[in-house]
Each structure stands twice: as C-alpha cells, then as structure tokens.
Design a protein that fits this description.
Strand content: under 5%
Order of helices and strands: H
Shape: elongated
Number of strands: 0
Number of helices: 1
Largest sheet: none
Structural class: mainly alpha
C-alpha cells in the first residue's frame, strides 16, 4: 500500500510572517486611502449598509 503520496512543503515561519506583515501594510494603506470614498457613497445612499 502506498502512503504519504502528498507531502506538505516545509513552512519557513519567519519568511511567512514577514510576507504576512508586508501584505498587511499594503492592505492598511489601501484601506486608509479608499475609506473616504466608501463613506461618501454610503452618505449618498448608494450602499445599503450604515456607518455606526
């Protein structure tokens, strides 16, 4: 019987965490940049959700 045909790749934890931190920083910059546009659309009534 064959076993272990699929072996997960080694996870470099330090590399993974640094990539996550870099991606988080990119997302945070975009959020801060685009948030005023979203709020304007909500205030105009173009989006169904409310700001609380």
């Amino acid at each position: 019987m064959l076993r272990h045909l699929i072996v997960p790749p080694h996870l470099d934890t330090n590399k993974h965490l640094s990539q996550m931190q870099a991606r988080f920083n990119e997302i945070k910059i975009r959020f801060d940049l685009l948030q005023p546009l979203v709020k304007k659309e909500i205030y105009r009534g173009h989006l169904e959700i409310e700001i609380k």
